[in-house]
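Example with several molecule types.
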Amino acid sequence: MVARIIVGAHYGWKDWLAQRATAVVMALYTLLLLGIALYQGGIDYASWTALFAHPAFRIATLLFGLALLWHAWIGMRDIWMDYVKPAGLRLALEVLTVLVLVGYAAWLFEVLSGAGR
Amino acid sequence: MPTAAAGSPMSDSELPGQLPRAARPVYLNLIAIRQPIPAIISILHRLSGALLFLVGIPLLLWAVQQSLASPDAYAALRASLAHPIAKLLVLGLVWAYLHHFCAGIRYLLLDLHIGTELTPSRQSSYVVLIVSLALTAIIGARLW
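Resulting structure tokens for the full complex:
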């Protein structure tokens, strides 16, 4: 009988794809923001708050933020998986990473909801 | 160590001129091994990503929050970012973002099977390194 290592199949490619899709979202947002700044010839308080007063820009920023947090999760988990061998420590670091990311997400919602007022 | 008779099949631990497998030195000191340039780009990609997660994201959230709070908070943010140490920190994070951005574009192109041969992949690694450093230098010159 062949000793098989039982691992789930087909879960890696979803993360692989998500990592790349979120990267594209962030790259596009970066270019958008750069384009706006160059078009306006710089950014001051008035133009900055006017930008965030646009619902479309706030939605784009929310998309960027969520893409960033998702991307950061995949990347940090990969780092812990590759370099931290003890399973308990790795699990602790992964849980800590999730907590930090949830905290960042809450902060992001607060910033964006405050910007709409 | 037994010598293999001429013509007899050799196992890989008995190759002429080589130590038996167990006696070969295991030499995996990452600091001491001379890394090829794509490996350096890859390590910097991870390093910059971790830096952005730990320092970049909270600083960005804080800065955007301050910048939108009020004209006074906006001015205060600009003033605190004008401090030389703050500028150095921002410059470090700008490099991390730019390197991660450029190296990420390179990986996306590699995923599309563009530039996967040895020579182009080495060349694109140098492009990533130089472009991200040059853009950081330009932004640094504008900051100071």
